[in-house]
Amino acid sequence: MQLAETAFAKINLALHVRGQREDGYHQIETLFAFVDVGDRLTARSAARDEFRVVGEFADQLANPFGNIVARALAALPRPDGLAITLEKNLPVAAGLGGGSADAGAVFRLVREAHGLPEDWRARAAKLGADVPACVDSVACIGRGTGTELEAVENDLAGTAVLLVNPRVPLSTAAVFAAWDGTDRGPLPDGPASRIAREGRNDLEAAAISLCPPIAEVLAELAESGADLVRMSGSGATCFALFRSHDVMRKASESLALRRPGWWQLGGSLR
After folding, report:
1. Which one of the listed residues 39, 102, 130, 202 is annotated catalytic?
2. Which of 74, 81, 104, 180: disulfide with 49, CB 3.0–4.6 Å?
3. Given 10, 39, 88, 202, the catalytic residue
């Protein structure tokens, strides 16, 4: 048996931080969306679980065996093992839910091979707040810590999107700790396009204070002809939505000439 899955890059089209909970986590409201590109996982049957990492950002995973992919495998009961190779194409600690997307892809691999236990959502949530959304990788609203999911009218599917990262890793915990604590209100109602257009990312200012190049990325994208520009998650990756893939590709080529050191990846919203 040979299986393959893409770990679709996650972006937060809007991210509203509503407060800090007694357990130390933050109460959020977010609009998750997923890009049709990301890391790549291949799997085959094995006597026991095996895991290896290749790809551009493989060396950023200091301890592959403590990686969320290995923990996702351990969290799911199966009659035999899976040997998984992760092609790490997304930067680590980048606001793209890369590790969570990898874990979500593991859940899909196991679902295809053996099915998932009835409590798979709880198992996913224990791995990370973004993991439940990443299992199906479809646009949805996340509340609580991000694990309470609601359906949304996804009128942005197929939209051209460009992801840009200044190649600076950024700790999610540090960004949340730098948030100013102000509740600026809930997500708007309506379809994904309205929530994205009228929403915001409440972590943007905190992330910029820790990683000033984010402001440069946002400024560059604002001049690219994009319809919407915003930071994703806790950063440092930012995204731009475009009216067409041709406009997106031209913006990407122009940006690569001006900022050759930045990482970027183009695709479509799922």
Report:
1. 130
2. 81
3. 10
